[in-house]
Amino acid sequence: MSNYRFIVSGGGTGGHIYPAIAIATALKGRFPQAEFLFVGAKDRMEMEKVPQAGFEIIGLWISGLQRSLSLKNLMFPFKVLSSLIKARKILKDFKPDMAIGTGGYASAPVLKAAAQKGIPYVIQEQNSYAGITNKWLAKKAAGIYVAYEGMERFFPESKIVLTGNPVRKILTGSGSDKKEAFEYFGLSPQMPVLLIIGGSLGSARINQLIEEKSDWLQDQGIQLLWQCGNSYYKKYQGLDQENVRVKAFVNKMDYAYAIADIIISRAGAGTISELCIVGKPAVLIPSPHVAEDHQTKNALALVARNAALLIPETELEERFEIEFERLLSSAELRTALSNNIKTLAKPNATENIVNEIENLLMAS
């Protein structure tokens, strides 16, 4: 049988969306007759990115709890109930053979409804510290695919498979044409390029840092390729100039990585996995505002292997110029970081996950 039907759910940020798209795309390659339906959260970025990737998506009225006291939290129980009811109807109408969850608000009601209907589901956990949703859903999962060792702290050990994180397929290929990439961004191949990526939604603090340090960085003879995020673009687009390219969102990340000499980045799991594959020296500035501070834990896993530099947000003022100058002045350090981060790459992660899913389908 190859005409399987898959429900895929995950979203809110690129860290959940891109793994979901990567898995679905690989499954489509393995089973060309298969049908796919994504389920996401209304008004989140998956409602745009998934159709761009060629898949249908339905949105649920769901969001997470606010950490601070908020009237929005009063709506949370109603959103959960509404999403569960809609998820059950989606499963009843679509009749999937399997559900796949990659984390995010929408995956909880979808996989919970799948469990209630006896539909097998699998979980893909990107982070070194498991998210609440995936921990809650782990007990009834048919398989749990992780990127870090030691995840039996959170999940039943018998269900865990160390696969790595799926990344965009274009990044695992033979590499992009650097000449074409420089022309695409309008930058010079004669000067080093600093790539700044604050996560798929952008980072207020990293954007503030780059705005403050833009002249200083250019004085070091560096060009900037700066993905600031859609919601910040209006504020920073006026800084776009000959040696500074400001982008709301970089769609051709393979080009961006190809010309980058150094990368400044958040430490989301998906980004970390991509950095390991492209193997460029990186300065990580973890977001302190995510659940269980998992970005700091992701970054520390690299620092422990001398595979990246880490600067907490609270130390940027006193440490950024010192650390960046140290990196810029030492070819030996840049080479060590590059070589060490490459050893952590798992370029076959998506294929490994699809193999595991296929084995479960064959056994059922």
In short:
With 364 residues, this protein is an alpha/beta fold. The chain is 43% helix and 15% strand.
Which range best describes the helical content: under 10%, 10-25%, 25-40%, 40-55%, 55-70% or over 70%?
Answer: 40-55%
- Apparent shape: globular
Mean pLDDT: 90
Under CATH, the topology of the largest domain can be stated as Rossmann fold
Give the spatial strand order of the biggest sheet: 3-2-1-4-5-6-7
Our Rg estimate from Cα atoms comes to 21 Å
For the record, the count of structural domains works out to 2
- Percent strand: 15-25%
CATH superfamily of the largest domain: Glycogen Phosphorylase B
Protein structure class = alpha/beta
Total strand segments:
13
**Quaternary status of these chains?**
single chain
Elements, N to C (H/E)? EHEHEHEHEHEEHEHEHEHEHEHEHHH
Query: Which architecture name of the largest domain does CATH use?
Result: 3-Layer(aba) Sandwich
Let me know the largest β-sheet: 7 strands, parallel
CATH class of the largest domain: Alpha Beta
Give the N-to-C terminal Cα separation.
12 Å
The number of helical segments is: 14
Q: State the low-pLDDT regions, or none.
A: none
